[in-house]
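Worked example 3 (structure in, sequence out).
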């Protein structure tokens, strides 16, 4: 128990040393979310810009062709056009030369200078989205220079318009459009990013920050119940995480409080145990002196009292062993099970007892590989609990039989020892923690260690200890142990007590 206290203090020191200071390095989650939101919005704007610039380029060419087509139709009807009108037409379209084809006849409408070759020829009826995108970006990036030839149908009327346009003119208009789109995209990106960031922060970041801050506060003082997070009423995953965290913190808080109580209890037990061993040693000295008296009764009882005190002394050592880690390793021997049960009957003073009947149906030749002292403790604990339960039951009348029955069955390679009684049984609420330490059924003076120690001993023997749920009027415990066939040798082990005297023993 002292080790438990020491380990608890050491664990707290290590927890304090390993606890994070709460300082953050680099970008926080909020900053990363904001940057990613802006980045993704800009990527979306770029994806929108690619087809929009191609569409603007096509509309720009179609508009110029439409203006030139209308002018060409009017000039065709008029028959002639002045130089000033030609100049205005070229200024309006940005073209160097415009010609008009109709009914197989081609006519030059206007020309400011003779074109010197073409960087590309664009036939609008043959344009595809991909060719329009490629041409737009080639123009924007300055990969094309000189003039381009554009041929398209007249929207109002018959015929075709053939124009020569400088690449620089179209590039200037595309750059102006791109700048406008960029400015608009920045505004949209900032607004969208702000809205998305605010929404995500309200929906996710703030609850996550609340969770992490709650965990940090709880880690600093896990025994303070006030640091347990109060779950919100959210029905989504965040709300579920809050409820699960609250449940986990509550269980951990209770476990730490119980651990501290156990550590304090261990320190108290170690002090009491030290004084108790001194008292038992003194009692052993007095009884050894009584052995020298000639009284026959004293001669019969004194050895048994000495054996009982020796057992009590060994129990004080076992209490310290249980508090440190576990029971001592069993010293496996071949024992006669009926003799061990008989010893329990004598120690509890049930031989010839008029109030409680003790029945053993174990064959005299049934042997088992086990530690005799530890198996005695297990059976003793179970039978003593049955005696106390039936003695404290105030609801029964004189006609009710109080009986403890011990039986054994061999099932293949296992032997099952059944200890049943006719008492009130185990309360339903106690069954879940029946074999856990310091969980008692509420009996007077109970510590909740008897069944925990018994279960640990049986487990050390590669066995199991369980409560039989039905088929018994009271409580029925089943001890299952490995059963190995052994050559039958009488006198394999001596009895723990002679058979001619009854001795009453106190409880754990």
């Amino acid at each position: 128990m002292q080790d438990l206290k020491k380990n608890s203090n050491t664990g707290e020191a290590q927890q304090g040393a390993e606890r994070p200071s709460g300082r953050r390095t680099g970008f926080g989650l909020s900053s990363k979310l904001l940057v990613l939101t802006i980045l993704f919005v800009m990527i979306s704007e770029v994806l929108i810009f690619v087809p929009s610039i191609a569409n603007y380029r096509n509309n720009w060419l179609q508009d110029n062709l439409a203006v030139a087509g209308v002018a060409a139709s009017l000039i065709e009807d008029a028959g002639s056009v002045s130089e000033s009108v030609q100049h205005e037409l070229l200024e309006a379209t940005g073209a160097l030369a415009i010609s008009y084809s109709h009914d197989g006849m081609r006519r030059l409408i206007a020309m400011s200078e003779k074109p010197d070759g073409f960087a590309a020829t664009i036939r609008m009826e043959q344009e595809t989205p991909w060719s329009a995108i490629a041409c737009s970006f080639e123009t924007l990036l300055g990969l094309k220079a000189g003039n381009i030839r554009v041929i398209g149908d007249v929207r109002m009327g018959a015929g075709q318009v053939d124009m020569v346009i400088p690449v620089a003119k179209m590039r200037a208009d595309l750059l102006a459009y791109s700048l406008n789109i960029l400015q608009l995209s920045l505004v949209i990106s900032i607004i969208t990013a702000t809205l998305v960031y605010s929404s995500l922060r309200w929906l996710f970041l703030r609850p996550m920050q609340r969770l992490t801050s709650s965990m940090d506060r709880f880690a600093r003082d896990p025994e303070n119940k006030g640091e347990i997070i109060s779950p919100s009423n959210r029905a989504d995953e965040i709300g579920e995480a809050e409820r699960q965290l609250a449940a986990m913190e509550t269980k951990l808080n209770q476990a730490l409080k119980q651990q501290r109580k156990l550590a304090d209890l261990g320190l108290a037990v170690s002090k009491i145990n030290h004084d108790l061993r001194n008292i038992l040693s003194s009692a052993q000295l007095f009884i050894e002196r009584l052995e020298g008296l000639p009284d026959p009764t004293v001669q019969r009882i004194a050895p048994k009292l000495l054996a009982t005190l020796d057992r009590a002394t060994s129990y004080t050592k076992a209490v310290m062993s249980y508090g440190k880690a576990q029971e001592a390793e069993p010293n496996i021997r071949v024992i006669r099970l009926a003799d061990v049960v008989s010893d329990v009957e004598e120690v509890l003073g049930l031989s010839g007892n008029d109030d409680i009947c003790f029945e053993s149906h174990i064959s005299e030749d049934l042997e088992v590989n086990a530690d005799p002292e530890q198996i005695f403790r297990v059976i003793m604990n179970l039978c003593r609990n049955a005696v106390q339960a039936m003695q404290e039951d105030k609801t029964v009348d004189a006609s009710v039989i109080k009986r403890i029955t011990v039986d054994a069955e061999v099932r293949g390679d296992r032997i099952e020892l059944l200890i049943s009684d006719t008492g009130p049984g185990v309360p339903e609420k106690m069954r879940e923690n029946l074999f856990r330490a310091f969980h008692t059924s509420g009996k007077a003076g109970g510590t909740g260690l008897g069944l925990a120690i018994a279960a640990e001993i049986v487990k050390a023997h590669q066995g199991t200890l369980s409560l039989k749920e039905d088929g018994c009027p009271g409580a029925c415990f089943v001890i299952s142990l490995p059963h190995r066939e052994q050559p039958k040798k009488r006198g394999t082990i001596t009895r723990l007590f002679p058979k001619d005297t009854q001795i009453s023993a106190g409880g754990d």
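Notes: The CA atoms of residues 11 and 17 lie 10 Å apart. The longest strand covers residues 403-411.
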